[in-house]
Amino acid sequence: MWGIVRSDDGGAWRRYVPGLDKGKGLYFFFIKSETKTPGGLPAMPVTTSFYKRYIKHRRAFNPYDVRTSPTAAILCTDSFQSMYAQMLCGLLARTEVLRIGAVFASGLLRAIRFLQLHWKELAHDLRTGTLSGKVVEPSIRDAVAEVLTGPNAELADFVTAECGKDKWEGIITRMWPNTKYLDVIVTGAMAQYIPTLKFYSGGLPMACKIYASSECYFGLNLRPMCDPSEVSYTIMPNMGYFELMPHDPDAAPLPRDSPPPRLVDLADAEVGREYELVITTYAGLCRYRVGDILQVTGFHNAAPQFRFVRRKNVLLSIDSDKTDEVELQAAVERASGLLSPYNASVVEYTSHADAATIPGHYVVYWELALREGGAWPEAAVLERCCLEMEQALNAVYRQGRNGEAIGPLEIRVVRAGTFEEMMDYAVSRGASISQYKAPRCVSLVPIIELLNSRVLSKHFSPACPNYIQPARTTSDRHGLASKCPSSTIPV
Q: How is residue 464 annotated by DSSP?
């Protein structure tokens, strides 16, 4: 995982960005609704647990941890009401904002897109001094009333003038002129959002401060204002017992009955080597494989420093979701069952995490074949295939879709022979024709351009998947999907 970010909570930041105690932070934080495990225990993302405990119950005033967002807005599970209130309060404090952030880069881009879609309503509220009737949660209305104390025509005119322009480059620094940096995670899969963040922020620095997961806090970035490509985290040995499993991306998979690789202590880590992190925690996890692949970049005193490389076996990720090859394969098989009545089948497929839209979404390329007497499936059937794939994906993905952190899954049907052209391209680049296997996820621009140039039709999921029921169950397959936006909006 890339970790969770706790906003500026100490005077140590004076070393990097002076004066942060003189202003506020505009952080777009959200919680998700709790679910129950089969045993009846409550289950929730670590950020939800953190916000409910820390933000709700914090007592002492900290000048480095003053935020514009009301606690009631952060703790509201309705994403629209939460975002609307946080954005409105952020605009009211626009000259006081010194840093802007979210947990993941994708979350901050969602906030910018929200401003693009709703600036007229926000300007109306500022002009009239009243809160939109779309925000119905009493606690949020009470909290916003404390800062929206009356009409502000000057601010409403400013928002209208700036947001009414076709040009949105540098909108962050235009709306919040004193912003010094962005506080977002842009390592790992979030790196795909860096160009878009630079576009909207006018090139503001991006701070990646801490590396953590639901299981444990791992390390700190001792140079938080460095370029995202240079981020390394220093392991904190006091947070747990850490061991390293050597990882060779080119090695063949080990047989099931073979002993596990020898674990390496932190002190024996080799610079340049890749390892999978293994942890033993105070909470009771024993030699737990986190699934993160790290590369040793150096040492701080005796503590190794790591660059996050990727999640092991993860193909697709947009927000906090992680989809591996096995899960994607199962989803394609489940959806392709809807093609049987048409004597059609999926002969090849690959995928791509498309970050060019806000929110980002999964794109799955299908090459179809018709058997004798077959008919081409209607668009509505292929849309249902999109939803069927989403129903088969994990609960984190499905909850992200319902919370609008992830856009509708898209199937792009490509013409026959496209995957042969992909193989020809790979062979021309040096791949062995006898060992070539179609990749289940692609990221190279030439490959994506080749696929997109062969697209016959595009189809989006018409609704959100049900994330209350576990994936791959009969009730999930045939149950009604919840309503949500059915289109993905390009940047």
A: B
Type and span of the H or E element at 25: strand 24-28
Are 113 and 55 within one domain? Answer: yes
pLDDT 10s digits, 214-231:
788 899 999 888 888 888
Q: How confident is the model at residue 256 (pLDDT cuts 50, 70, 90)?
A: low
CA distance 417 to 73: 51
Burial class (CB in 10 A: 0-12, 13-18, 19+), 251: exposed
Cis ω before 359 (30° cut-off from 0) = yes
Higher-pLDDT residue of 59, 117: 117
Instruction: Tell me how far apart the terminal alpha carbons of the chain are, to the nearest angstrom.
Output: 26
pLDDT of 209: 86
Percentage helix, strand, coil for the chain under 3-state DSSP, each rounded to 5: 35, 25, 40
Q: Is the pTM of this model over 0.70?
A: yes
Q: Which domain holds residue 390?
A: 315-490
Largest CA-CA distance found in the chain, in angstroms, rounded: 73
232 contacts 209 by C-beta, under 8 angstroms:
no
Q: Are residues 162 and 243 in the same domain?
A: no
pLDDT at 253: 60
Cα–Cα distance between 220 and 151 in angstroms, integer?
44
Q: Does an H or E element contain 413, and which?
A: strand 410-414
